[in-house]
Write a structure and sequence with these properties.
The protein is an alpha/beta fold. The protein contains 10 helices and 8 strands. The strands form 2 sheets. It has a 6-stranded parallel sheet, sandwiched between helices. The chain has a two-stranded antiparallel ribbon with strand order 4-5. Strand 6, helix 9 and strand 7 form a beta-alpha-beta unit. The longest helix has 17 residues. It is elongated, with a radius of gyration of 19 Å. The mean pLDDT is 93. The structure holds adenosine-5-diphosphoribose. The site of adenosine-5-diphosphoribose has 21 residues, from helix 2.
């Protein structure tokens, strides 16, 4: 124990353990959640309850039920989020993750439906909860171009029609109760299996199966570092918890 160290929960000890787990040039998996994009100004579901949308519960809008009941409201809400993300810029955390891939293999597994990891320059990003920009037909599943999102939010907007089969175009995101897209999920499992370290950034660790990835890493004996200013549901898989924001902690942790 060093002078002033208060034991296993001492933040300095966690920082040292985090640095040593992330050192080296073995394959790194970065698992990101909504907190990763918070400093880019992308509103989390909770923050999204403003203006036109104050009276809607976003967790209810993100559901197959809401889509069946009221597709125009759900479509308008997602198009508004698309517009917000298009105006946002990657933050220092996204940029540091992208830079780290210059010296080692870095696989980003993100629960976020924004494209800020890609725009920061990360070469390998798996979107396990889909993407705001990958609209598809709900009937034939083919990709659909929805055109630019409206500049001003509107409360209702009719979804376009698929040009191949006439079905309704839906947001390309994974709603509560839906399966994860197979290809990014399987690629994420493979990446976890060969990782030398896992860095989890800004997720509540409550939504499965994404939240089980740190456990799988821990079962392999792979160190798991968490960056989150608050508590999460990740549990004992986490070997070091750095209590800071993505923009503050990630550049320092991944610096060579
Ligand atoms: N830096 C790092 N972490 C942060 C920051 C920040 N600047 N700001 C907030 N956080 C943390 C919070 O403490 C919280 O633990 O980010 C986490 C965000 O949690 P959620 O909003 O629940 O986001 P997430 O874990 O990504 O949600 C998982 O649930 O809503 C569905 O499908 C959606 O992909 C989403 C999934």
């Amino acid at each position: 124990m060093t002078h002033g160290d208060t034991g296993p929960d001492d933040p300095r000890r966690h920082l040292e353990q985090a640095r040593s787990a992330l050192a080296g040039d073995g394959p790194l998996v970065v698992l990101s959640g909504a907190g990763m994009s918070a400093e880019s100004g992308v509103p989390t579901f909770r923050d999204a309850r403003t203006g036109l949308w104050a009276r809607y519960d976003p967790t209810e809008l993100a559901s197959p039920d809401a889509w069946r009941r009221d597709p125009d409201t759900v479509w308008a809400w997602y198009r508004w989020r698309e517009h917000l993300v298009a105006r946002a810029e990657p933050n220092a955390g996204h940029l540091a993750v992208a830079r780290a891939a210059e010296g080692r293999e870095v696989v980003v597994v993100t629960q976020n439906v924004d494209d800020l990891h890609e725009r920061a320059g990360s070469p390998l990003v798996h979107h396990v909860h889909g993407s705001l920009f990958a609209h598809r037909c709900e009937t034939c599943e083919l990709a659909a171009d929805a055109g630019p999102a409206p500049e001003d939010p509107v409360e209702r907007l009719a979804p376009p029609v698929c040009r191949f089969c006439g079905g309704r175009v839906r947001p390309g995101v994974v709603w509560f109760g839906e399966n994860l897209p197979a290809a990014p999920w399987e690629a994420s499992l493979r990446a976890i299996d060969s990782a030398s370290a896992v860095l989890v950034i800004g997720t509540s660790g409550l939504v499965h199966p994404a939240a089980s990835l740190p456990d799988l890493a821990a079962e392999n004996g792979t160190p798991v570092v968490e960056v989150n200013p608050g508590d999460s549901g990740l549990g004992p898989a986490v070997t070091a918890h750095v209590r800071a924001t993505a923009g503050d902690a990630v550049p320092a942790l991944l610096q060579r």
